Amino acid sequence: MAGRRKLIALIKNEDTVTGFLLGGIGELNKNCHPNFLVVEKDTTISEIEDTFRQFLNRDDTGIILINQYTAEMLQHALDTHQHSIPTVLEIPSKEHPYEAAKDSILCRARGMFTAKDLC
């Protein structure tokens, strides 16, 4: 893994994705697939899940940032991801504030330290 560049992948709303793209994180892989998905009201859960799985399977993805509200819809897919890379981080959006108690990754990390903290 040393020397190989890893990307941040995004599954977020348009404003957040635009901000990250303006910051220079936008990339296309060798198959011309972007490292982001703009989630809109008409975006289906299956489209979000397919994109999430594609990001997990890309060898150039290091971190996946996903809106916590959207992550709740993919809970089964998040629960099956057991690897540290790519790291999946749930973050807030303007419409939905972050709730630490609902963060599946944070709950799993707490469980590593003491059994009673396991969510």
UniProtKB/TrEMBL annotation:
Keywords: Hydrogen ion transport, Ion transport, Transport
Tree of life domain: Eukaryota
Regions annotated as coiled coil: none
InterPro entries listed in its UniProt record: ATPase_V1-cplx_f_g_su, ATPase_V1-cplx_fsu_euk, ATPase_V1_fsu_sf
Cell compartment(s), UniProt: Cytoplasmic vesicle, Secretory vesicle, Synaptic vesicle membrane
One of the record's GO molecular function terms: proton-transporting ATPase activity, rotational mechanism
Pfam families, sorted: ATP-synt_F (PF01990)
UniProt signal peptide: none
Cellular component terms (Gene Ontology): proton-transporting V-type ATPase, V1 domain; synaptic vesicle membrane
Gene3D superfamilies with a match to the protein in the record: ATPase, V1 complex, subunit F
Main location: membrane
Lipid bilayer topology: Peripheral membrane protein
UniProt family annotation: Belongs to the V-ATPase F subunit family.
Assembly mode: V-ATPase is a heteromultimeric enzyme made up of two complexes: the ATP-hydrolytic V1 complex and the proton translocation V0 complex.
Role noted for this protein: Subunit of the V1 complex of vacuolar(H+)-ATPase (V-ATPase), a multisubunit enzyme composed of a peripheral complex (V1) that hydrolyzes ATP and a membrane integral complex (V0) that translocates protons. V-ATPase is responsible for acidifying and maintaining the pH of intracellular compartments and in some cell types, is targeted to the plasma membrane, where it is responsible for acidifying the extracellular environment.
Name by which UniProt lists this protein: V-type proton ATPase subunit F
